[in-house]
Amino acid sequence: MAAPAVCPGCGSAALLEDAHYAQQQLVCAACGCVLAEGLLTSTYTDRQHLRDIRIISEAAWADLEGRCLLTGIRRVQDLCKVLQLPAVFEETAVSYFQRALQHPSFHLVSLEKKELLGGCCVFVTCRQHNWPLTMGTICSLLYAKQELFASVYLSLQKELELSVPALSLADLVKTHLNSFQLFQHTADIPAPFVEDKEKMITRTMQIVELASETWLVTGRHPVPIVTAAAFLSWQSLQPAARLTCTLARFCKLAGVDLPPPAHLRLKELLEILLRMASQLAWLRVFKMDKKTVVKHIGDLLQHRIFLLKNAFCLEDEEEQRAAALAEGSPGSAPAAGGAAQEKDCPSKGKRQREDSPRPLLPPCLINPRKRLRTAAPSASDSAVTGDEPISDSEIEQYLRGPEEIQTFRKAKGWL
Amino acid sequence: MDQNNSLPPYAQGLASPQGAMTPGIPIFSPMMPYGTGLTPQPVQSTNSLSILEEQQRQQQQQQAAQQSTSQQATQGTSSQAPQLFHSQTLTTAPLPGTTPLYPSPMTPMTPITPATPASESSGIVPQLQNIVSTVNLGCKLDLKTIALRARNAEYNPKRFAAVIMRIREPRTTALIFSSGKMVCTGAKSEEQSRLAARKYARVVQKLGFPAKFLDFKIQNMVGSCDVKFPIRLEGLVLTHQQFSSYEPELFPGLIYRMIKPRIVLLIFVSGKVVLTGAKVRAEIYEAFENIYPILKGFRKTT
After folding, report:
1. B-chain residue closest to A411, CA distance
2. Alpha-carbon dihedral of residues A235, A238, A244, A249, nearest 10 degrees?
3. What is the ipTM, given to two decimal places?
4. With contacts defined as CB-CB under 8 Å, which chain B residues touch A375?
5. What letter does residue A330 receive in the DSSP assignment?
6. Is residue B44 domain-resident?
7. Secondary structure element (H or E) that encloses residue A156, with its range
8. CA A255 from chain center: how many Å?
9. Band (B89; pLDDT cuts 50, 70, 90)
10. Residue B184 lies inside a defined structural domain of this protein
């Protein structure tokens, strides 16, 4: 509104623009009457021109980074508390996190990755102190995708040049079994299913060691093996009552996830145990199958060194025998075994008889997936010099003719 | 290094003046008369070969020398590749693509195979599986035109900002960018990669662009082989912790980062090994010869 020319109070024409603190005012110099005031606050529409570009000053940027660091550190500390780690771990993890955030390759990654970075630092710390923490646990705590976690972890390991020792299976067994809920009598677990913790831990450890000696562990995810071994040891401690329980039911009762590979690991473990059982004198009389062998796991584990030696060919002997039988008929070689070791095992077809010793090899070598191998480079390939003349006709086959271009254009609607 | 200690004192004085050489200096066996036309023999440690085998090796080396007389080049760089050249003579003719090393200062026509440590050669040659190379076509390209007028091209600008072109012989794939730079992948040898890149450049030329062939460079080579015995990866990561990364939760193989040469090896329990990160073929062979004795150490199980 237009400013009045005279003061309504005293009629004087001496009007001043003055500021009362932050507020502009039109004041009469004679009587001090306030004629008009400026606005103290602005509305959302008034601030329209301020909203489009947000210019962050240097100080504000440093503030953001500092806040990011602080939230990250707090997240690392929370993780350590949730996992009930000792205080030393927390300090180490926080120091790794600070180092990582200052490293140029992690400075500007997305927020999602920075969250995972905290988890990775905790994971690395635990591994370095031989605390058995699996990636699965951290991923589930952070609600993170395994592949993203894997990439952040690998780049962290490379950039900070951390040496991370391998996961110790013995500790993993103990930690994993701690989370099983079979060691106390509760309402939903039948009485014969409850088991003593120490006995189960010892036996599971022995079965896991057996698996590791027979190549079932190398290259495989550790948790399904521990689950399968725990199941077998639990069954074998009271076979009469527990043989009818399946692996899935066992995991449900124990309150533990059933990882999908556990079924395969169980099958492989049972196969190894069956072979060992075939070498035990007082068991040869019985016809062993997957169910009955569980009853004798205790005996098998007790004599496992002897049984392993007898049940499986060692590579040395195999090579000598294979060399001696150099003219061995190729027809008897089983389809499953590509290795020379298999040639002299008396086997016909893919299924071997259970009493013939089989070489102690990883399962991927025993059952190789039939894949078409690309042929070795032929002589003509190796004669390529790279500077041969290129014929026009060969190139023209890759170019479209004019009619073809027309039809293609019409079809695609491009110009 | 080790090799120097095994040299008789007079042989050390024969070190070639070329500064790039390390222990791979020309060494003459004490049995060989100086300056004869026969290929000089590398010094062998005592426990390895019988005289019969040595003579056999001599013959093979002579054959190798005759075959490779045409390829005389001084390799200033890889001092370790000589190991492979020597090891190959025990089994077959030398590999295509390896050039012999330092010309002998005494007998200029024959290549020298310097001494190798006492370990036996592996006899296994990694096969090259993939070569990635780049070349600059030297002119700006209109990707839409290329995609329209070439049969073997696909272009989806929303997904990726380059034309993906494929040819049948050699079977390769190329990524062609609008700046004129091109990446060629899928070839099985360096020469094939170069030939394929030239073919792509010729296709682009025929489409009407003034394409040239500048700065062809091999960026990466991938090889693979099989040592034919299972490997205890857990043991390997314990003893070579500073080079290895073995996370069975993430990946079934062990990632071994070799420092010299700078190659990454993926080692699997089945005994298959994948080698990658090489710029020249010799690096792959050298890396495999370095890892083979280490892997053999993890062969025996119980």
Report:
1. B148
2. -50
3. 0.70
4. none
5. G
6. no
7. helix A146-159
8. 21
9. very low
10. yes
- Nearest alpha carbon to residue A166 among A134, A144, A140: A134
User: Is B271 in the same domain as B196?
Assistant: no
Which 3 state secondary structure label does DSSP give A316? helix
The range of the structural domain enclosing residue B187 comes to: 133-218
3-state class of A182 per DSSP? coil
Same structural domain, B235 and B214: no
Residue A37, φ and ψ in degrees, nearest 5:
-125, 150
**B275 confidence band (pLDDT: 50, 70, 90):** very high
Residue B69, domain member (yes or no): no
Cβ atoms of B238 and B225 within 8 Å: the answer is no
Instruction: Give per-residue pLDDT as tens, A121-153.
Output: 898 888 888 888 888 888 888 888 888 888 888
Residue after which a domain boundary falls, among B160, B184, B218: B218
From A204's Cα to the closest Cα of chain B, the distance in A is 20
Residue A139 corresponds to which tokens in the numbers above? 């991923």
Query: Residues B267, B205: one domain?
Result: no
B246 and B284 in a common domain: yes
* Element of type H or E holding B218: strand B214-226
Cis peptide before A104 (omega within 30 of 0): no
CATH number at residue B283: 3.30.310.10
Is there a contact between B230 and A215 if contact means CB atoms under 8 Å apart? Answer: yes
Q: Which two tokens stand for residue A193?
A: 């299913």
Domains of chain A: 1-39 (2.20.25.10), 68-160 (1.10.472.10), 169-310 (no CATH)
Token couple for B100: 């012999």
The answer on B263 and B214 residing in a single domain is: no
Say if CB A130 and CB A168 are below 8 A apart.
yes
User: How many other C-beta atoms are found inside a 10 Å radius of the C-beta of residue A258?
Assistant: 19
pTM over cut 0.90: no
Number of domains in chain B: 2
**Residue pair A339/B272 in contact by the 8 Å Cβ criterion:** no
Same-domain pairing of B166 and B204: yes
* B77 occurs within a structural domain: no
- Are B235 and B266 part of one and the same domain? yes
Tell me how far apart the alpha carbons of residues B176 and B179 are, in angstroms, rounded to a whole number: 8
- Taking an 8 Å cut-off on Cβ atoms, the answer to whether B245 and A164 are in contact is yes
Residues of A in contact with B203 (CB under 8 A): 395, 398-399
Those residues whose C-beta lies under 8 Å from the C-beta of residue B291, and which sit 6 or more positions away, are B256, B258, B265, B267, B273
Residue A169 vs residues A92, A161, B111: alpha-carbon distances, Å:
23, 24, 52
B158 near A CB under 8 A? no
Residue A212 to residue B234, Cβ atoms within 8 A: yes
Question: Looking at residue B103, what DSSP letter applies?
Answer: B
Q: Which two tokens stand for residue A323?
A: 């060399």
Q: Which of B203, B231, B301 has its CB closest to that of A360?
A: B301
Q: Does B302 touch chain A (CB under 8 A)?
A: yes
By CA distance, what is B242's nearest residue in A?
A163
If asked whether residues B197 and B253 sit together in one domain, one would say no
What average pLDDT does the segment A235-243 reach? 86
